[in-house]
Amino acid sequence: MPRALLVAAVATLLAPLVLVAWVVADVTGPSGASGATRSSAPTAPPVPAAVAVVRGWDERRSAALADGDADALRSLFAPGPRGDTLAAADLALLAAYDARGLRVVGLGFQLVDVDVVTAAAGTATRPATLLVAVRDRMPRAAVARGDVVVAHLPARAEARRVLRFERHGDDWLLAGSAVAPP
What we know:
Elements: H1 3-14, H2 20-28, H3 47-67, H4 70-74, H5 81-99, E1 103-120, E2 128-145, E3 148-152, E4 156-168, E5 171-179
């Protein structure tokens, strides 16, 4: 696999992690002062439930990429501009690999820490939301043609991200992702 393709693939794979402005704006508000606080309200799920949301979403994304399933991949993102942008980045990655007969396999993130920042119950007009701060790392992933691994993607060191999920029906969909502020 040409080095340029590998670099482009890794950059595209990690693109959702750099959409800082959108999620940080959700967290801090327009003034930049933190408007997000840890929720101790009964609507905030305990950390194990938030971990399950993050892990479940990551596993479904990994499976969709490995299967080359664009519909399954798109279905992981919340409707709206932020979710659409994140979905477009992942769908472009999938299309780039698919055009070469390749798949990303074994994509997995190790969660180091998960903190529930805020959680809000849904209403008739708004879905429930969950904002979590995570520290994770990507220790593994490979590129395969059929059942044959043709390249290993470089591991990603530990990173901090803020993820915004929205609940639509029974599924938690990703609505925002950004590098977490220090």
